[in-house]
Specification:
This protein has 404 residues and is an alpha/beta fold. It folds into two domains: 268 residues, Alpha-Beta Complex (Spore Coat Polysaccharide Biosynthesis Protein SpsA, Chain A); 119 residues, no CATH class. It contains 18 helices and eight strands. The chain has an eight-stranded mixed β-sheet, sandwiched between helices. Helix 1 links the parallel strand 1 and strand 2. Helix 14 packs parallel to helix 18. The N and C termini lie far apart (55 Å).
C-alpha cells in the first residue's frame, strides 16, 4: 500500500486483550466502512507483546456485512499489528500509533481502547468527523457514567483541569480520542516519551497539551463506556499516583498559561445525548471512612505540613461525626487539592509519597459524595459535581497566590 494514499488511521493499543479486541476491531472496521467509504484507512494495533493471541484476532476479525445495510461495496480497512518500543505503558503504544499515522500522511487519527464492550461503529464517525471537517484538532470523549464511577476524574482531574485552563472537557482522561495531523506532530516533538507520562499519564497529558497550546478542541458524546465496574473504595492508589502526578507535573509546565485564565467556557459537543441504563456500582463507604480516619491519625505531621493546622483541625472535627453525618465540604476539598499541587511544586516530599498521602483524603471526599448523592438521580449527582467545579474556579486564587 502506498502510504501517501492514507486518509485515516485508527489506533488500538493492546496487551493480552484477546477476549475483547475482536469486537473492537470489527466495530472500527464497520465504522470506517459505513461513515468513511471514500477514505483510505488503516487500523494500527500497537501491541505490548501479548501472549494470548491478540494479534491474530486483530488480523482475522470480521464484520457482519448484512448488519450495516450499506448501499456501497464494503471495503475492509488495511490492518497492521506492530510491537511498540520504549518504556512499557499505554503512552509508548500511542507514540507508535502517532508515528505510523504521521509517516503515512494521515489527516486524522482516532485511538480506542482494546477492552471496550460498548464500542459501536458510530464512535468512529464521532471521533473522526470533527477533525476531517478541518475545524478541530482534538476530540475528547463524553460518556454516560454511573454517578459513583470515575471518582478520580469527578473529584480532582475534571474540576482542576477546568479551573486551570478554562475549558469544560468533561472526560479529560477518557480512553478514546480523535487527533489532527498537526496535533500528532506536536505530540511527537515533545520530550516526554521516556518519562512516567508515557508510562502512566498519557491521557491527561494529551488533553492538557491540546488545550494549553491553543489547539481547537471539542468533545463527542459516545454513550456508555462499559467496563467492569469498580468500587471507588477499592485500591486505586496506583492510579491516583499516576494520574494526579501527571496532573501536577503539567500544572508546573503550563503555569504561564493557566495564571492568565480567569473564566471558563463550554466546548462544542457533537453526538446525540440519550438516556443510558448503567450498571450499579456498590460502594463500601465504611471502609473509605476507616481509611480516612487512619490517615488522620498516621499522617498528621505530613498533612499539617501540606494543608496547615487550620484545615487539619477542620478535618479532625469532621472526622468525629458519625459515619452517616460525615461530610467533606467542596471549599475544604478544593483548598486541599491546590495545597497538594503546591507541595508537589515545592518538593516537600518525594512525588510518589506525597500523592499517596493524598489517598485517605480522596477516600474521605469520595465517601462524602456517595452519601450526598446516594438517593439522587444521575442529573442531580452531576449538579453536585458542577458545584465542586465552581468551587475550584472560585478558589483558584489560592493556588495562584501560593505559586508566587
Amino acid at each position: 500500500m502506498n502510504s501517501s494514499e492514507i486518509d485515516i488511521v485508527v489506533g488500538i493499543p493492546s496487551y493480552n486483550n484477546a477476549r475483547t479486541i475482536g469486537h473492537v476491531v470489527s466495530a472500527v472496521d464497520a465504522g470506517l466502512a459505513k461513515y468513511f467509504p471514500d477514505k483510505k484507512a488503516v487500523i494500527v494495533n500497537s501491541d505490548g507483546g501479548s501472549k494470548d493471541g491478540t494479534s491474530e484476532i486483530v488480523k482475522n476479525a470480521v464484520i457482519d456485512r448484512n448488519a450495516l445495510l450499506l448501499k456501497h461495496p464494503l471495503s475492509m480497512a488495511h490492518r497492521i499489528t506492530t510491537p511498540y518500543h520504549g518504556i512499557p505503558g499505554k503512552g509508548s503504544a500511542i507514540r507508535t500509533i502517532f508515528t505510523n499515522a504521521v509517516d503515512m500522511g494521515a489527516d486524522a487519527c482516532a485511538i480506542v481502547d482494546s477492552d471496550l464492550r460498548s464500542i459501536t461503529p458510530e464512535w468512529i464517525e464521532l471521533l473522526l468527523k470533527p477533525v476531517l471537517s478541518g475545524t478541530f484538532d482534538f476530540v475528547a470523549p463524553l460518556y454516560a457514567r454511573h454517578k459513583f464511577d470515575g471518582t478520580i476524574t469527578n473529584s480532582i482531574v475534571y474540576p482542576m483541569t477546568r479551573a486551570l485552563y478554562g475549558k469544560k472537557i468533561r472526560q479529560p482522561i477518557g480512553g478514546e480520542f480523535g487527533f489532527s495531523r498537526r496535533l500528532m506532530e506536536h505530540y511527537l516533538n515533545q520530550d516526554v516519551w521516556g518519562t512516567d507520562v508515557a508510562r502512566f499519564g498519557i491521557d491527561i497529558w494529551m488533553t492538557t497539551e491540546a488545550i494549553a497550546n491553543g489547539f481547537n478542541i471539542c468533545q463527542a458524546f459516545l454513550g456508555a463506556k462499559i467496563h467492569d465496574p469498580k468500587d471507588p473504595g477499592s485500591d486505586l492508589s496506583d492510579m491516583l499516583v499516576q494520574v494526579v502526578g501527571s496532573l501536577f507535573e503539567l500544572t508546573e509546565r503550563h503555569y504561564d498559561v493557566w495564571k492568565t485564565i480567569n473564566s471558563v467556557e463550554e466546548v462544542e459537543t457533537f453526538g446525540f445525548k440519550y438516556y443510558v441504563a448503567l450498571d450499579h456500582i456498590k460502594v463500601d463507604v465504611s471502609r473509605m471512612l476507616r481509611t480516612f480516619r487512619e490517615g488522620l491519625k498516621n499522617l498528621q505531621e505530613i498533612w499539617i505540613e501540606i494543608i496547615g493546622s487550620g484545615d487539619f483541625n477542620e478535618l479532625r472535627m469532621q472526622s468525629a461525626a458519625a459515619d452517616a453525618e460525615f461530610r467533606f465540604s467542596p471549599e475544604l476539598w478544593a483548598r486541599i487539592v491546590y495545597d497538594f499541587a503546591l507541595a508537589y511544586k515545592k518538593r516537600k516530599l518525594p512525588p510518589q509519597q506525597l500523592i499517596k498521602s493524598l489517598m485517605p483524603l480522596y477516600l474521605g471526599k469520595t465517601a462524602s459524595f456517595v452519601m450526598d448523592v446516594d438517593d439522587k438521580s444521575q442529573t442531580e449527582a452531576e449538579a453536585e459535581i458542577e458545584k465542586l467545579c465552581l468551587q475550584f474556579e472560585k478558589t483558584k486564587y489560592h493556588l495562584a497566590n501560593g505559586w508566587k
